[in-house]
Amino acid sequence: MKYYEVNFDGLPGPTHLYGGLSDGNLASSSNKDLISNPRLAALQSLEKIKFLAELGFKQAILPPHQRPNYELLKISGFKGSNLEMLKQALEQDPELVKSAFSSSFMWTANAATMTPALDSEDKNTHLTIANLITNFHRSTEAFQTYKIFREVFDETGIKLYPPLPRTVGDEGAANYIRFAEEHGAPGLEFLVYGYSLELNLAEPVNYAARQCLEASMAIVESHQLREENTVLAQQNPEAIDAGVFHNDVISTGNLNFFFCHELAFVNQEEVIEEIKEKYKEVTGSELITKQVLDKEISLEEAVLSYLFNSQIVGDKDSMILLAPIECEENIKIYNYLNRLKEDDANPIKEVYYMDLKQSMLNGGGPACLRLRLVLSEEEIKNTKQEIFYSEALYLKLRKSIETYYPEKLSFSELANQELLDQLDEAYRDLNGIFAGLIF
Known about the structure:
Elements (H helix, E strand, L loop, with lengths): L2 E8 L15 H5 L7 H17 L3 E5 L7 H6 L6 H11 L1 H8 L10 E4 L10 E4 L6 H4 L2 H11 L6 E3 L14 E4 L8 E6 L19 H10 L7 E5 L2 H5 L9 E4 L2 E5 L6 H16 L4 E5 L6 H7 L5 E5 L2 E7 H5 L1 H12 L5 E7 L2 H4 L9 E7 H6 L8 H14 L12 H17 L6
Parallel strand pairs: 1-2, 4-5, 7-8, 10-11, 13-14
Antiparallel strand pairs: 1-15, 3-4, 6-7, 9-10, 12-13
Helix pairs in contact: 2-16, 4-5, 16-17
């Protein structure tokens, strides 16, 4: 049986907005209420998908959730037409309106956590939808994501689980890395948490940790992972306070390569040693690790550039690092990446830079925009085919985005019937392209 890694990218919706709703995400907070460009956000993301697909990597595109979320306004007690509810809510609870418009579902790294059949005791693929309870606007996504994933994977035999109870915070694969010699070989599962309900752990001071240890442990149990192929580690509270709200802002990896900042984890040397030892036990091979020293690139520089939110793809001997253009614009990081690709001690052979500024201004880089799933050939065949990248799908989506997506979206102008009509048209067209996955 052949296995492949498939990138499931989320398409930004036509209500892409700078709401500043994500506490601890410095870009989100600092760019609050800027005028956004939903059309450009979607086109930039679409071009990333096209770029990787044309390099030969398997790509799928997940549809945007329908927005505004009028049900959110209704259950909050607002009445009347959609426009009337929005006008009332803008006066009484503007943050609720931002949540109702939020396009944060586009960052599908937070959608779920998966375990491929190769790593699970029962030899099934497991997929748990994240509950995202730390931020209200994101928690409203969870069951719509579950609904979409049920339809997408209905014929695959994948064991799909609903979000965990709201007592434990689960932020999905943004806190998860899988290491292996190849996608079709057994691997090591690395899960990162920030706080615990039961243990007395060191905690950040300025911002809340998002991933709960007990949530990660629940996933380990339900996905039937074994101790010998699992590592759990705590995020460094200092990193969280520097703006590292998810692990994928400070560490990343692909197959046999682990790339991280030296201040990513509590007891970091012990964590890396455990990963390397268990990796060798599982694969029989050595894991290649590259730690970036704080004197080389500081925590602040890592967060501002989203260096570690770069997307790494390719096989174990020849990898591509797809970085946000902000890394190219920072001469210190640009020079570091040039040295990295020239260093034969690691598998990074090419570095490409991608303009994703609309997403970056809201705190999401290349890796935030995709959920990577290791699936068998049979599972891919039985997945809903309409979402897989093709030139025809690309052209349909590009035309739809250019026709219906607003070029400017301002928070102060959301209660506008012309805008609401435009959004309705956009979603009707997208729903047709995505074969009814939206509604």
